[in-house]
Amino acid sequence: VSPTYLYCITAPGAPSPSPSTVGIDGTAIRRLADAWVSDVESRPVRATIERIRAHDAVVAAALDTGSTPLPARFGQAFATDDECIATISAKKSLLSAALARVAGMVEMTVLLRTEAPALASNSGTAYLKSLARRERAADALLRTARAVNARLSHYVRESTEGVSASVATLSHLVERDALTEYLEGVKAVTREMAGIDVRVLGPKAPYSFGPPE
Amino acid sequence: LVLSDLISRVLDKGVVLSGDVVISIADIDLIKLELHLLLSGVESAVRRLDTPPA
Predict the structure, then answer these.
(1) Helix or strand holding residue A136 (H, E)
(2) Is 0.90 topped by the overall pTM?
(3) Chain B nearest C-alpha distance from A107 (Å)
């Protein structure tokens, strides 16, 4: 028996995958209870770029049916179909609540990127000063990210933010029907930001808005 | 940046159902990418492995 690899969980009554949908290593996607799965050769499934892309493409195909799925994290393969079904059933109420939370929604991502100040290595003092400059730059980016979130709150149901030294990632849960207004809102907010490179990604399935682990 | 976002999203977000998720990064191609993003994904995978399933 081949292991069963999980891509996403769909709402009850959501459309089934089209027969041409392919997953990891070209495997055929099928529906198992309310999940989209495929048979994989063995587990664990090692992460490669091709497989990560294939996983995401299946989740995107599920989103394209018009019903918003809960994406599974990469790498979850079960010994059998029955084990997969049992694991999903055990978390049914958590998953139902999460599906209700994202119904009619998509995830949008705003990436804000700035040039992180280089770290100096010519002396200890210079290093510490450059470290402080880098921290100030990260603080400024975080403030900008929060300001953007605040200005977009009208279009966004929920948001999360992650900030590194040079990139802020804002994840937004947005109603499918309000995408045009949201994108106009992003454009208006980010137009006036100098020195920050803005990328908008999506719509995607709500990877960042699943049930708590 | 877009590829990094894809990788960190798929490896580090989304529903976790199985207690014994194993992510093994073996591909050289993958490791050549934005290492800090990749490592944050690997770190959280290792944390999950260290935590026995509830």
Answers:
(1) helix A124-152
(2) no
(3) 11
